[in-house]
Give the backbone structure.
Amino acid sequence: MPDVTSGTDYNKLLEVLNDSIGWGTGNNTRTARGLNRGYKRFLHPKPQDRSGVSHEWTFLRPILTLEVKADQRDYDLPSNFGRLDGDIYYAHDNWAYYPIRQVSQGRMFELQQYPWSGESTYWPHFASIEPVIPEHNTTQQRWRMQVWPTPNQTYSLKFRYHALQDDLGVDNLYPLGGAAHSDTIEVACLHSLHQFYDDDYQNHWAEDFENRLAASISYDRKLSPTTHGRMVDGSDGLHGEYYQADFIQYNGVVP
């Protein structure tokens, strides 16, 4: 199938923004700054209702397959990992997917201190996410996943996560969202550029952006599933006293 060409890209946005504010290409540095402020506003919109919860775009929630190996507990997550979005699953030899419970780092420390923990290897039942502080802040901060028990062989873990995004530029031409949201992205960039650099800023830019954003969010919500499946999480079916305990969760994590 041919590619859809009705979307926008970094160079098109620069041209539109420069024309709108009356600048030439000699001001591309400032234009790009306003452009990316608008792009980030689109990617991370403010709450649209009284719930206080911001919309999360479907295109920012990819599924990652992470291979865990025998005798290794710690695994670095991708540089664009923002946070976990939902449950973690591992693929069993019978092609069924089994859930892995996310726990806090404190709970992970407790599991590792069980008398048999150092000798026990099996398929992972628990996982924790912890930040990695770079030495001297010479690189971007990363995140790491730790699993327990230590894997006894290679397993494929699958989970959805919230993906962080770089600024648009000559090496990152295309904004996420595609043609469906190109008008909203353009108006978001126009709004930010005029708000920060136009002495005659008019509020219609903000109104245009809010209207376009509402339309984009409505479109994106239609891409979500109409059902989340049957309510059979199997949380009562794990064997062993440390699996059968009833865990209280806070924001999806066992404290």
